[in-house]
Fold:
Amino acid sequence: MFEPLFQSYSLGPLELPNRLVMAPLTRMRADANGVMGAINAEYYAQRASAGLIIAEGTYPHGSGKS
Structure:
């Protein structure tokens, strides 16, 4: 029943090891300048077995701060 979830999948030029996808979650862990740090790297490393991880967004420019 769930076997297809664990089969590899080609997504354009990407070869995913499985069909599991982690949706983006806003963790609010960037620093005051909007820069991701070691805590973000650790968070995603802990979840790296997902086939595809869509990372959270940060503001692309200083004027995007709220």
